[in-house]
């Protein structure tokens, strides 16, 4: 290694070498720059990405094709993805400065606070949000500015498989049941099953169901300023104790049946696999098969409903997009165009756009009709309360990581309910403070 | 290697010069072409290896979220690793348990198969290729996914157990078992150490076995007193390589586990946690510190293995 260094005097030859090396480096960097060009034959190329099941992917691609037909000068590259890994990839692309122009997103503050989302108010000439209820728009806003447009609605529901429920010979779950009654019903269904089906899904690791539970008690997942939790350790303990009892009585399946679905893969959740008859579930994800009915979650009262008009997912425009205007046109088309609305159907829940929803509803049948009807039901006064403030940026870490992890430690006997709840509170506090 | 290349290029025109030392004096001029020819290597090593390596060392002393410039925090990352991050300590434990189970078991499997294949027989090339095949496939993402499906609650493995009336467990969903599924995946990829063991076995002089046989040594005695000592340098080599490989395991934890370290952090391998910190939490400085602790740890463990060699490795002289 040392020898060639000894010859390294400043001579014309070495200078030439340096130039040659620099030349090679330049050539390399030129190659690297080639990939991100967004113009192909004078056409603007937009990239769009989202997560979801194949049905959503197909519906979105069909709607995007309509957009391309209406805008011959724009080509759209679709990059559909499954939920697991979606944000990892998006975050990496955002940090590399190479994110898709339009992306599906559901955590506004995380991206808006870092300038990764375009201020849609500045693009309102091409992006019309007048048909979307302010309650939905508020969920896509950060510090008073609109950064994301809701693509659909996702009021949380109690979903049940009417075939399994009627096979057990029990009455269907109804809105206004107490949590106690829900557990008893689940127990009855399990008892009639063959040991491979259970009454209800185990929602102890389901943070959205827990959110409804704490809202029924006047809380929220986070405080209004997003700097602390909006519920108490006692409430978390009560939640896990409730499910622990149901697990032990056989009303809900054992942990090993529930575990494969917690990472977010729709095809692996027990309700979709026909292993349980009832489960708390969102309305924006269409499950395979037909016999799905939607009612309000247990514990709802007119005095203090936990349900709210939750937006399912949003469309956001990348803050550093070179084609922000065209990207906003695409978003406008996806949320406002009637034809696109018919293609998209309820692939992201019932449309948040009231006009599109009105046009779509008569065409729906089966489960899709149920979703639209349930969304209408939640929208009525007394069945919903005000939406919570936008989640803090640590929310993904807390909800998909910490909450699931600590709930699972109870399932598998790695921690007592009190220990797990204590760990959750302490670590969530650290994450919200931004030092973990 | 590089300097050798450089020298041969530099020296060639001066073949007539007797002493190579003298030949380098007028070599001022010949440095140029040498550097041009070396430039792919230099660019590669400096640009892809040295600079990122040093930069990551620098980052490990900073707080860096990729979006804003890194700012210096001294040893804070390292301090936090060992004082206020229980998940980090847990990831070390998970990884250590994996290494001390998977590496020896894999070597045992490799040695056992190598002993079987070492005897000359018809079609042995085919057998060797077949036994090596899993190692080519095993590191791939596809196989990890297939592996997870195989050991799923209603997967083929439990179907196989049912033939014998055994009710299988939920191997990949249960935190008590999933680690063993990953260890089994590692064991199955015994091909590379097997090939090295085979080469080592071929090196053992036949006379030793013949002489031992004449002295009345049985097969076990021959294995213990001839094969193992004669093979010990190869065992050391394989042990070091497999141990380092096991410490760096990422794909199986990401794909056989749930990708978040679950269930209940039972698959939270060191590298997976590092990936989470870096790419999910955007804590590049913290992740860089983790990487450097890992390098240091690997260095120490490898050093200990080499040090222990004098007690059990037989170099035959």
Keywords:
A: 436 residues; alpha/beta; D-Maltodextrin-Binding Protein, domain 2; 2 domains; six-stranded mixed beta sheet; four-stranded mixed beta sheet; 17 helices; B: 317 residues; mainly alpha; two-stranded antiparallel sheet; 15 helices
Describe the structure.
The complex is a heterodimer of chains A (436) and B (317). The two termini of chain A are 44 Å apart. Chain A has two domains: 40-151 and 312-370, Periplasmic binding protein-like II (D-Maltodextrin-Binding Protein, domain 2), CATH 3.40.190.10; 157-307, Periplasmic binding protein-like II (D-Maltodextrin-Binding Protein, domain 2). By secondary structure, chain A is an alpha/beta fold. Chain A is globular and about 65 Å long. Helices cover 43% and strands 12% of the residues of chain A. Chain B has 317 residues and is an all-alpha fold. A two-stranded antiparallel ribbon of chain B has the order 1-2. The model of chain B is unreliable at 1-23 (pLDDT under 50).
């Amino acid at each position: 290694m040392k020898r060639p260094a000894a010859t390294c005097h400043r001579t014309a030859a070495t200078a030439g070498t340096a130039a040659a090396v620099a030349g090679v480096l330049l050539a390399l960097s030129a190659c690297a720059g080639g990939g991100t060009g967004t113009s192909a034959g004078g056409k603007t190329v937009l990239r769009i990405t989202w997560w979801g099941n194949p049905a959503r992917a197909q519906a979105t691609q069909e709607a995007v094709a309509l957009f391309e037909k209406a805008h011959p000068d724009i080509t759209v590259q679709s990059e559909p993805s499954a939920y697991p890994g979606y944000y990892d990839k998006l975050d990496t692309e955002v940090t590399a400065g190479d994110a898709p122009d339009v992306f599906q997103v559901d955590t506004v503050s995380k991206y808006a606070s870092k300038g990764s989302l375009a201020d849609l108010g500045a693009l309102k000439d091409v992006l019309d949000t007048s048909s979307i209820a302010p309650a939905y728009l508020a969920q896509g806003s950060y510090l008073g500015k609109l950064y994301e447009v809701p693509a659909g609605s996702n009021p949380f529901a109690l979903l049940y498989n009417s075939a399994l429920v009627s096979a057990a010979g029990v009455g269907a779950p109804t809105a206004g049941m107490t949590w106690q009654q829900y557990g008893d019903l689940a127990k009855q269904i399990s008892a009639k099953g063959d040991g491979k089906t259970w009454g209800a899904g185990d929602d102890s690791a389901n943070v959205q169901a827990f959110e409804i539970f704490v809202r029924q008690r006047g809380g929220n997942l986070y405080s209004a300023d997003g700097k602390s939790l909006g519920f108490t350790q006692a409430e978390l303990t009560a939640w896990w104790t409730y499910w622990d009892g149901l697990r032990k009585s056989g009303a809900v399946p054992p942990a090993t049946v529930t575990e494969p679905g917690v990472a977010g893969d729709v095809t692996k959740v027990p309700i979709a696999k026909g292993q349980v008859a009832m489960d708390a579930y969102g309305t924006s994800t269409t499950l395979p098969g037909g016999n799905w009915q939607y009612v309000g979650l247990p514990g709802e009262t007119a005095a203090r409903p936990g349900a709210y008009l939750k937006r399912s997912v949003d469309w956001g425009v990348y803050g550093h997009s070179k084609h922000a205007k065209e990207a906003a046109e695409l978003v406008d088309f996806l949320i406002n165009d009637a034809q696109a609305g018919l293609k998209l159907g309820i692939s992201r829940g019932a449309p948040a756009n009231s006009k599109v929803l009105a046009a779509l509803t008569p065409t729906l049948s089966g489960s899709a009709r149920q979703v639209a009807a349930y969304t209408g039901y939640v929208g009525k006064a007394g069945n919903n309360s005000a939406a919570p403030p936008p989640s803090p940026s640590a929310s993904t870490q807390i909800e998909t990581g910490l909450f699931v992890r600590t709930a699972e430690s109870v399932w598998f006997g790695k921690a007592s309910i009190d220990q797990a709840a204590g760990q959750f509170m302490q670590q969530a506090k650290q994450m919200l403070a931004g030092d973990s | 290697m590089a300097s050798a290349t450089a020298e041969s290029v530099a020296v060639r025109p001066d073949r007539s010069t007797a002493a190579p030392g003298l030949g380098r004096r007028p070599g001022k001029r010949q440095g140029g072409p040498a550097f041009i020819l070396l430039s792919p290597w230099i660019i590669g090593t400096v640009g892809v290896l040295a600079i990122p390596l040093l930069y990551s060392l620098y980052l490990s002393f900073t707080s860096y979220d990729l979006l804003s410039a890194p700012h210096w925090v001294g040893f804070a990352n390292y301090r936090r690793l060992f004082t206020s991050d229980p998940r980090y300590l847990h990831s070390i434990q998970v990884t250590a348990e994996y290494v001390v189970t998977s590496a020896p078991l894999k070597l045992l499997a490799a040695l056992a198969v190598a002993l079987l294949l070492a005897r000359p027989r018809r079609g042995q090339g085919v057998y060797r290729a077949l036994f090596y095949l899993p190692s080519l496939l095993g590191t791939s993402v596809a196989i990890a996914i297939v592996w997870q499906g195989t050991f799923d609650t209603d997967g083929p493995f439990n179907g196989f157990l049912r033939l014998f009336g055994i009710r299988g467990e939920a191997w990949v969903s249960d935190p008590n078992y999933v680690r063993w599924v990953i260890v089994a995946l590692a064991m199955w990829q015994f091909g590379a150490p097997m090939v090295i063991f085979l080469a080592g076995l071929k090196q053992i002089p036949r006379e030793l076995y013949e002489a031992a046989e004449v002295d009345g040594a049985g097969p076990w005695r021959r294995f213990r007193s001839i094969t193992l000592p004669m093979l010990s340098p190869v065992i050391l080599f394989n042990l070091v390589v497999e141990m380092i490989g096991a410490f760096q395991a990422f794909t199986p934890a990401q794909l056989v586990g749930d990708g978040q370290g679950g269930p209940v952090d039972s698959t939270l391998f060191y590298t997976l946690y590092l990936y989470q910190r870096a790419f999910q939490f955007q804590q590049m400085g913290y992740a860089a510190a983790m990487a450097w602790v890992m390098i240091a740890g690997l260095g120490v463990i490898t050093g200990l293995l080499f040090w222990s060699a004098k007690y059990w490795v037989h170099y035959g002289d």
